[in-house]
Amino acid sequence: MKFGIRTPSLKKSIKARTSGRVKRALKSSVNPLYGKEGMGVINNPQKAVYNKIYNKTTVSAVPKLNLNDSNSTAHINDTPIPPEIGGQFTEPIPRSKTKEERDFDIYFKLYEEARRLEKNGNADKALEIYTNILEEFEPTGTAYYERPCIILEKQKRYDEAIQICLRAIEAINNKRFNATADEFEHRLNRLLRKKEKQKKL
Fold it and tell me: Residue 166's closest CA among 192, 188, 136, 144?
């Protein structure tokens, strides 16, 4: 276990603010619980304990200043010694998962399998899994609606794609997850135009 000042890394700092930020945004679009407080203990209790101890036994090489206090100064040596060092630390007891979290564990694995199939060219099988997710669960994330819409539109199955778009817009408007309906409304209008054009053929 490290004690004292953390070794700064300019490369990691820049990555966290650029490509890391993009990756976190993508993960949040699929998993609304990503990055929420307490999820670390559920997903990886050992790492969560390590991080908690590390954050208490080390300090940043660039101390944070209290901007609300004009007389504030950074004192690296003022960091109190946490009780964890004395062996009094006990691992937090992981809380029981909610139904929403249990459901997410199931349909996220299904989604990953569908994405793998889609990337390997098996769009029909991937679509079957995507539609099963929508039938069995109420997924919280735009990707669960986008992927089947994309496949259905390519297959010119516009009616089915329209229904999924409408369901996504309803879920967003009902605040079931954090997203904007603009993309789905734009896609819906495009599908309706294609459907009308298909009728004229």
Answer: 188
pTM for the full predicted model: 0.56
Spatial distance between the Cα atoms of 87 and 159, rounded to a whole number of angstroms: 63
Are 138 and 157 in contact, with CB atoms under 8 Å apart?
no
What is the largest distance, in Å, between two alpha-carbon atoms of the chain? 78
Q: How far apart are the first and last CA of the chain?
A: 70
- Asked if 161 contacts 191 with a C-beta cutoff of 8 angstroms, the reply is yes
The per-residue pLDDT for range 162-183, each reduced to its tens digit, is: 999 999 999 999 999 899 999 9
pLDDT, one tens digit per residue, over 40-57 is: 656 666 776 677 776 777
Class of residue 87 by CB neighbours under 10 A (exposed 0-12, middle 13-18, buried 19+): exposed
**194 near 152, Cβ under 8 Å?**
no
Q: Contact at 8 Å (CB) between 148 and 163? A: no
d(CA 115, CA 109): 10
Quickly list DSSP for 141-197: STHHHHHHHHHHHHTT-HHHHHHHHHHHHHHHHTTSSS--SHHHHHHHHHHHHHHHH
Tell me the fold of 99-200: 1.25.40
Are the CB atoms for 145 and 153 separated by under 8 Å? no
Which segments of the chain belong to CATH 1.25.40.10?
99-200
